Amino acid sequence: MAPDGISPGSGSHAQALSDRGLSATQPALSYLPEFLEALKCLFHPVENPSGFIPLVVAQNDLMGSVVIKELVSRHAMIPDDVVSSISGYDDFLGSARLRASLAAYLKSTFMRDVSEEDVTADHIAIAAGAGAIIENLAFLLADAGDSAILPAPYYPAFDNDLQVRAKVTPVPAPELKNFPDAHGVSPAPVPTPASLAAAAADAVQKGTKPRMVIFTNPSNPLGDVVPAQNVQECMVWALRNKLHFVSDEVYANSVFDAENAPPFVSAAALKDAAGREAGMEPSEVDEYVHVVFGMSKDLCVSGLRVGCLYTKSQHVISALRNVSYFCGVPNPTQHALAALLDDTAWMKNFMETNFKKLKESRDAASAALAVAGIQHTRATAGLFLYADFTRVLKKHSRADEPTFEHERALFEALFKEARVLVTPGRDCHHPTPGWFRVCFAAVGVKSLEEAGRRLKRFIDAI
Fold first, then answer.
1. Can you tell me whether residue 278 is helix, strand or coil?
2. What does the mean pLDDT of the chain come to?
3. What does pTM read for this prediction?
4. Among candidates 64, 228, 215, which has minimal Cα distance to 149?
5. Of 131, 151, 115, 58, which Cα lies nearest the Cα of 309?
6. Using one digit for the tens of pLDDT, what is the confidence trace for 328-345?
C-alpha cells in the first residue's frame, strides 16, 4: 500500500515520468521522425542517387567546414597562461572576453546604428543555442499558462521552445493580405499591430495572459527582411500594452541579397524611437526590448551551440546569470570563438563569401522549384524559400477545399515517393493548407537540382 498522500502508479512504464516528462516525450517537430529516417540514406549523385533529399533543416552548411577548421586551429593555439582560466568555472553569462568580442561584432555588423555605450559586454549573455535563450526568456518573462504572440507563419520549433519546460502558450498572429495568389508571387506579408492585437484578444478569450511578442526578422520561414517601419509599429504596440518585445535576429548577418531587400534595422536601433512614440521612459523601454542572435546560422556552425542575447535590462541579465548555469557554453569553445570574432579581416572575408554562396543556393533552389512549376515568395535573407504547393495539393487530394490533413498526406507522399522532405506550412502555423518551407543551405546544388526533377515527376504523375 502506498503511503498516505502518495498515489500509486498505474503500472505503465511511462508513469515513471512526471506530466512534464511525458509531454517532453513528444517529438519537438512533427517531421522529426522522417528527417531522422532520411539521414540514414542521404542522396549522393554517384554513390546513392535514390537517397533522400532533406530540405527541412534550418542550417547553413555552405561554409561550415571552413569555420570549424578555423575554430579548431584557434582552439589548438590556447596559450599556457590562458589554460587555467578556461579549465574552471566562469561567469555563466559567458566569459568577459567572449561577451566583449560579441559586442564588437554587433557594432561592426547589424547593430552599427546603435550607440557605442549601448552595446557593451554588460548587455550580452550567452547560452547553448538560441533555443536555450528563447526558453530562458519564456521562463523569466512569463509564468506557466501565460502566452506569447508570434507573427505567423513562424519557425516551427518555437512551439517546443516555449512549451516543453516554460509552459508558455504560443499564439499565432497570421497576416494574410500580401500572400501570393494563383497568378504569381507577391511580396511576403508583414506583421502589423492589428494582427498582433487580434491574436492577443484571442489569447485573452482563451484564458491566457499575453506577456511577450516574439518577432523574427529576417523571417523564418519567409526568407525576407521586415521593413524597419513595420518593426517599429509592432514594437510600439507591444510597449503600449506592456508586453516584452523579443526580436529574434539570428539571420541578421545572412541578408545575402541586400539590393533587393529593405535595409535590415535591428530592434536595438529602433527601441528608443518606439519608446518615445509609446510614451515610455528609456529606462522602462530597456526592460521590455530584447534581441536574440547567435552563431548557428550566420556563422554556419549549428553544432557549436552558441546562442546570444542583447538586452539592457539588468534584471534580465541578473536572472540569466542564475539559469544559464543549466545551459552554459564550454569555456574552450568560448575562447576559440572570441579569437575568431576578433580577427576582423577573416570575418569580413567569411561574410562576403557566405553571402555569395547563399545567393547561389537560393538561385539554385528557385530554379529547381521553377522546373516543377512551383511559385515561392522572394527570399533575400536567411536559408529558406516559402513555396506555394496549393495547386499540387488540390491535384493530389482531389478536393475542392483541401484540409491540413490533406497537406499532411501530401507531405508523406513527397517523402515516400519523391524522397524529398519539406516543412509543412501547418508546422509554421500558416493559416491555410498548401504551403511548404524549403531550406536551401543544408544541401548542395546537385541535391537541389535533383529535388526539382523529382518534384516535377511527382506532380506529373498525380
1. helix
2. 91
3. 0.92
4. 215
5. 131
6. 998 888 988 999 999 999
